[in-house]
Write a structure and sequence with these properties.
Blueprint: E1 15-21, E2 37-45, E3 57-65, E4 75-80, E5 86-91, E6 98-104, E7 112-120, E8 125-133, E9 139-148, E10 157-167, E11 180-188
C-alpha cells in the first residue's frame, strides 16, 4: 500500500484499502450464516518498521451484509499508533464500536503469527480468538466470550475481510506498507 497515490476506490481520498474478501457471489461455505459456527484461520506478518495510523489501520474484519447496520463491521483487528503501538480487537453490536481487548503491537513486528478465530453467528453467539507466534507457539493475544450478539437484524450473511484498510488523515505517520498473509482457511462446523 502506497501513501500516494493509493486511495479508497477513487471515492474517498482520506483513506485507502487493499483487501481480500468474500462477497455475495462467493460459494455458500465462505459466507457466515445465522446459527452457524465458523473457524477462520490464517497467518500474517507485519514487517520490521511497520507504521500504524493514529486513526485506524484495519487488517481484518467480519462484516454483515444487508440490514441497517451493514456499514459498521462487527469485529475488527485494528493496529493503532500510540505509546505503545497496539493491536485492538474491536466489536460493534450496533453502530458503535468498542475495544474488547488490546495488546502491545511490538511482539507482532517482523514475526509470522497464526490466527484462529472461532465464531458462532447468532443472537446468543460465541467468539474465541487466539494469535500465536509461529516457531515457539507463544500466545500473543487471546479473547473469549461465550455470550455475545453475533447477528444483526436484516443481515443476509457475514463476510470476512483481510488486508490493509487505513486512514490517510495523518499521512505523515505512515509509509508505503506491506502486510504478508498466508494459509487462509474457512471451516464450517
Amino acid at each position: 500500500m502506497h501513501t500516494e497515490p493509493d486511495n479508497d476506490r477513487c471515492r474517498n481520498f482520506d483513506r485507502q484499502r487493499n483487501e481480500i474478501k468474500t462477497y455475495d457471489q462467493s460459494p455458500d461455505d465462505r459466507l457466515g450464516t445465522q446459527n452457524e459456527k465458523v473457524v477462520y484461520k490464517w497467518k500474517f506478518k507485519l514487517p520490521a518498521g511497520f507504521q500504524s495510523s493514529p486513526d485506524f489501520t484495519h487488517i481484518h474484519q467480519l462484516k454483515s451484509v444487508g440490514g441497517d447496520l451493514a456499514a459498521m463491521p462487527m469485529y475488527t483487528f485494528t493496529l493503532r499508533k500510540g505509546s505503545p503501538d497496539r493491536l485492538e480487537l474491536r466489536y460493534a453490536e450496533t453502530d458503535r464500536q468498542v475495544t474488547l481487548a488490546q495488546t502491545d503491537l511490538a511482539p507482532f513486528i517482523d514475526k509470522w503469527v497464526s490466527v484462529t478465530e472461532t465464531i458462532t453467528y447468532g443472537t446468543s453467539g460465541t467468539y474465541d480468538l487466539e494469535i500465536k507466534r509461529i516457531g515457539d507457539d507463544t500466545i500473543l493475544f487471546e479473547y473469549t466470550n461465550d455470550d455475545i450478539i453475533n447477528w444483526r437484524a436484516g443481515a443476509s450473511f457475514i463476510r470476512p475481510k483481510w488486508g490493509i484498510y487505513r486512514s490517510l488523515i495523518n499521512a505523515q505517520d505512515l509509509r508505503d506498507e506491506s502486510v504478508l498473509f498466508a494459509n487462509f482457511s474457512i471451516e464450517e462446523l
